[in-house]
């Protein structure tokens, strides 16, 4: 609370008395003096009282004063900006926008109103309108760096990194390294990384001291090293992030990848397991762990990770198909059928499920069922040479010569260099 506001003694105004009662935590007396202040105190005193009350969190009382003053001074746009600020803090955005829209071009507060409006529209995901407001403000004040920064931040937040880059770069060249507590060097490095310009990105990211890096920037730096093939640096950065923020679940996917590319699959597998303990619903970690376990020849772990991934997200098709493939390779045909059949109730069935069921039924010598699922898989898989070849062999084995010939003709158009299948077609046509 500002002590210079008070004038102790009998000559205190009602505004001063109201604040004095607040200091004593006597809300009842505060309300009485506040009511009298609205009636009797000077406009200058009321303006100062409103500032004090807003800073103390009494926004409703401050709003009453500002509205009273605006009614008396309708041309004072400064008051409108204070009213809008309070309305925004109360999440009354529509009323705040209405208030700001009353500030017309030519007003010394018009540019400020445009900036506040842009921010409000951005919070409502109306990014095009927000951009329009900022571009209008930039046109009116082309040398104002705060406006340029706001525009860069809008592009940054909406993923338009290539549009953000030249703005941040221009600000940095002007000596602006930080605006509103945002490190512009950091921002530029992250933008380059997201834009896939990793060489430029690392040049800026390396300028940031590790102790000053936020978790997101540590992640971006590690990711950039990974893309540049500097796996040791990537590992170092991701491990630093893990030590400072072990709940940053996304890091484990990329730390594991860095270990794999650095020739350390055991460390990668441990990393994925550690990530799963942090985020048990991150299906990407189960998939990565299963793939790594397969490379290490740990087949039981492959099945275990995929089954756990399926429980974490039963609708994840990548897990479903991989687990089905494992069951087929392991000769667990009935288990695969039991696993896949519930997914036939889905509205949009992945054709790979039909194909896998056909394979499973075929191995169990349930020919009619295999035929059904080959036919179901065919419309979506007819341009897949591997599917066609398998289906052709199934048809030939089961004496369906005419259909075998039809599919063979289709197959050799896709694979004209497959001599074995060309010979089979010639042989069948000569019979």
TrEMBL record:
Pfam families linked to this entry: ARM_TT21 (PF25058), TPR_16 (PF13432), TPR_8 (PF13181)
Ranges in a coiled coil: none
SMART domains: TPR (SM00028)
TPR repeat intervals: 215-248, 249-282
Domain of life of the organism encoding this protein: Bacteria
UniProt keyword annotations, A-Z: Repeat, TPR repeat
Entry keyword Repeat: yes
Record has Repeat as a keyword: yes
Protein name: Uncharacterized protein
Species name: Fructilactobacillus lindneri DSM 20690 = JCM 11027
